[in-house]
Amino acid sequence: MLRWPFVASALAIVALIIVLLLVSLVQGHKQLRSVQKELGRTNEQVVQDKAATAELEKSVANLKTELDAADKKRTELQGNLDEANSDNEVLRNELGAAQSQLKEKEAQAQELTTELEKTKKETYAQLAAAKNSESEAVRNHHQRGNKETL
Fold it and tell me: Against a cut of 0.90, is the pTM above it?
C-alpha cells in the first residue's frame, strides 16, 4: 500500500507536469499565433514596400527619360541659338559694311551734286555770256547797218 501514495504522488506530479506543459504549450501556441500575425503583417508591408519601390523605380525611369528628352531638346535649342547668333553676327558685319558703303556713296553723291551745281553755274554763266555776246554782235551789226545806210 505504500505504493499507492507513491503512485498517486507520481501521477499527481506527472499530471502537474502535463498541465504545466499544456499551459506552456497553450502560451507558446498563442505566441506562435501572435508571431504569425506579426509575420503576416510584415510580409504584407514588404509586399507593399516592394510595390512602392517598383512604382518609384518606374517613376525614376520615366523622369530619366523626360530628362534625357529635355537635355536633347536643350542641346537642339542651344545649337539653334548658336546658329542664330552666328547668323546675327554675319548680318551685323554685312550691315556695318553696307552702312560704310552707303556713307561712301552719299559722300560721292554729295561730291557729284556739288560738281553738278558748279557745272550748272558755269554753263548758265557761259550761256549768259554767249547771249550777251550775241546781243552785242546783233547790236553791232545793226549799228553798222545803220551807219552804212546813212
Answer: no
